[in-house]
Amino acid sequence: MEVNKLYAMDCLALMKQMPEDFVDLTVTSPPYDDLRNYNGYKFDFENIAKELFRVTKKGGVVVWVVGDRRNGDVSLTTFKQTLFFKGVGFNVHDIMIYKKKNTPFMRKNAYTNCFEFMVILSKGKPRTFNPLMTKTVRSGFEMLPFNKRPDGINKKTLGKLNEEKVKVNIWEYAVGLGGTTSDKIAFQHPAVFPEKLAEDHILSWTNRGDIVFDPMCGSGTTCKMALLNGRKFIGCDISKEYIEIARKRIGIKNRLTSLIES
Ligand SMILES: C[S@@+](CC[C@H](N)C(=O)[O-])C[C@H]1O[C@@H](n2cnc3c(N)ncnc32)[C@H](O)[C@@H]1O
């Protein structure tokens, strides 16, 4: 199977051509419920889930980004799919939240929905975890009142507080032009996820040279970020038009070789 390549085809057919235990990380967002219209697709979730398990390396991870239809009776698709993934052998390593900073879609009788799920599935225990860090609120040095003398006088001592801690599992991103991406062409696709979201997962669950797969890559966000971070990518979308957007966005012809070699 050739890597650093975009495939315009059904991802199920593509995965059938992949060897077992091949992919280090999948970051993908499938068509969920009937929330968007794509250029016509066939989405066979159950067989896709089984094939994803087969092609994922032992210790590899799948990040499944999904939202539920909320029209007065939440679809629970995320939970149904997560249970199915568990049934085919995946470990549900975490359920994370992708919070959108700007949310234009107000609702009349419910609070404005501002998140999607990021289900973290692993084949066995994840082999790689490079935790992303964040600054602590009280970082640096501070006078700490922990040295109380026998006479009751509180002698303050200068202590060092941790400057960084591991990020929490709710990740927040601005969406739209300049947030999701600055590539105008990407918005010819109706449901692009933020570049930073893809990058944060790629950095967390893989190392340089690893294979990153997006079976439903749309405008190519995951592939672009894999490439920019020195990983190999395989992108697939059933729509030729979307693959053309991804191809232009990644700038495949001129940038590819130098980025991979660096
Ligand atoms: C939510 S979008 C992905 C968007 C992508 N994450 C991005 O940032 O542009 C889902 C994509 O799945 C594609 N798709 C649907 N069924 C497919 C299938 N069976 N094989 C491959 N792609 C499929 C659709 O064409 C659509 O582009």
Structural overview:
Helices cover 26% and strands 29% of the residues. The chain is of the alpha/beta class and 262 residues long. It folds into two domains: 5-132 and 168-261, 3-Layer(aba) Sandwich (Rossmann fold); 133-166, no CATH class. A hairpin with a 5-residue loop joins β7 (140-148) and β8 (154-161). The two termini are 22 Å apart. S-adenosylmethionine binds at residues 10-12, 29-31, 38, 41-43, 189, 191-193, 215-219, 221, 236-239, 242.
Question: What does this entry show, briefly?
Answer:
This protein has 262 residues and is an alpha/beta fold. It is built from seven helices and twelve strands. The chain starts with a strand and ends with a helix.
